[in-house]
Amino acid sequence: MKVGIVGATGEVGRTMIKVLEESNLKVDGLRLFASKKSAGKKLKFKDKEYTIEEISENVMREKYDYLLFSAGGNVSRRYAPIAAEAGNVIIDNSSAFRMQENIPLVVPEINGEIIKNYKGIIANPNCSTIQMVLALSEIQKQIGIEEIFVSTYQAVSGAGNKGIQELLNQQNGINNTAHFPDIIMNNVIPQIGPILENGFTEEEMKMVNETRKIFNDDSISVYPTAVRVPVLYGHSESVVFRIKKDIPLETIKNLISATENVVYTEKLLTPLMVAGSNITYVSRLRKMGKNTFLIWIVADNVRVGAATNAVRILLKHLEMRD
Ligand code: 2RA
After folding, report:
1. How much distance in Å is there from the Cα of 94 to the middle of ligand 1?
2. What pLDDT, on a 0 to 100 scale, did the predictor assign at position 255?
3. Ligand 1 centroid, distance to 264 Cα (angstroms)
4. Where is the Semialdehyde dehydrogenase NAD-binding domain (predicted)?
5. Which residues contact 79 (CB under 8 A, 6 or more apart)?
6. Distance from residue 147's CA to the centre of ligand 1 (Å)
7. In this structure, is the dihedral angle defined by the CA atoms of residues 267, 268, 272 and 275, taken in order, positive or negative?
8. Fewer CB within 10 A of the end CB, N or C, for the chain?
9. 127 given a catalytic annotation
10. What residue's CA is closest to ligand 1, atom 7?
11. pLDDT tens, position by position, 176-197
12. Does residue 304 contact residue 130 with C-beta atoms inside 8 Å?
């Protein structure tokens, strides 16, 4: 299996390598691509060293079984279409193509079937969307969801290596604020990405639009507030959802647990507990009134929210090949 990773030196790219190592996929041709700055550096895969190559249009025209992209929207917009034109299957972690009508936006456990024998660009959803739709997917499928009210508590690793470094620097007394609008140490910042004309942030509108696309249901109303918190790994989400009919609490608990790679627990659930896991964890299920429920969702945003979902898309696509 010839696999290429574009953005191999980034937080998600490096985690993609780890998740591929953990999988049973037989990768006998791995190519690692990054910017000129990183070309020549070496990274290990299954104890073998691989030299990072500078990305170029020529290397994107070669034939791969799968290409995983996580190098930002500009790199994806420039190179993914070239790779797609060469007949490749690309799984892109950027937001560049997610809302394009002809591009599948995939969480394999929910809508993986839509990429059977698909060729071209497959979009990986935003991290905060993935864990939320995974937790709610069986409820949506079996009952139907009318409204979702979500507040996120997003780790700094969502902003990549630079986000992690900024918090660590501040904890060591270096108060740089290059990547967040304010000091993130001992603080919370209710803004991730630019604030749009409608008053919502780009991050919040991703949760609205991507949820509807993944569930293939434009009737769902999503009311998001996305917040950055001084946590290294692990996005947490407080979610209130209203469903189409009255259902007992126990049934909702069973539906949450019915989704592969989702675990419901009555135990305390924190980001520190889930960092490094590929599972989406749900706890604090409560019921208020007839059709309204509240939950707490936590997942490793770099794994569940990016690298693991991307590799799961690859494995699902491979599994369904005729
Ligand atoms: C963030 N979801 O957390 C965005 C991009 N990974 O910064």
Report:
1. 10
2. 98
3. 24
4. 2-118
5. 6, 55, 57, 60, 69
6. 23
7. positive
8. C
9. yes
10. 158
11. 999 999 999 999 999 999 999 9
12. yes
For domain 128-301, give the CATH number.
3.30.360.10
Q: What is the pLDDT of residue 313?
A: 98
pLDDT in tens, 14-57: 999 999 999 999 999 999 999 999 999 999 999 999 999 999 99
Residue positions counted in the chain: 322
Give the DSSP per-residue string, 79-130. Answer: HHHHHHHTT-EEEE-SSSSTT-TTS-B--HHHHGGGGTT--EEEEPPPHHHH
Atom of ligand 1 nearest to the CA of 306: 6
Where does 2-124+306-320 sit in CATH, by number?
3.40.50.720
**What is the percentage of the chain residues whose pLDDT exceeds 70?**
100
Mutate to test the pocket of ligand 1, among 11, 95, 128, 132 (most ligand atoms within 8 A of CB): 128
Nearest CA, atom 4, ligand 1: 158
Give Cβ neighbours of residue 160 (< 8 Å, ≥ 6 apart): 10, 11, 12
What's the whole-model pTM score? 0.98
Active site residue 235: yes
**Which of 11, 154, 157, when mutated, tests ligand 1's pocket best, judged by the most ligand atoms within 8 Å of its CB?**
154
CA-CA distance, 223 to 204, in Å (whole number)?
A: 8
Confidence of residue 275 (pLDDT cuts 50, 70, 90): very high
Domain map of the chain by residue range? 2-124+306-320, 128-301
Q: Which of 121, 127, 136, 145 is catalytic?
A: 127
Closest CA to 75 of 117, 37, 18: 37
Q: What is the per-residue pLDDT across 95-106, written as a single tens digit (0 to 9) for each?
A: 999 999 999 999
Q: 227, 188 in Cβ contact below 8 A?
A: yes
- Tokens representing 290 are 């007839």
Q: In this structure, what token pair is assigned to residue 192? A: 């991730």
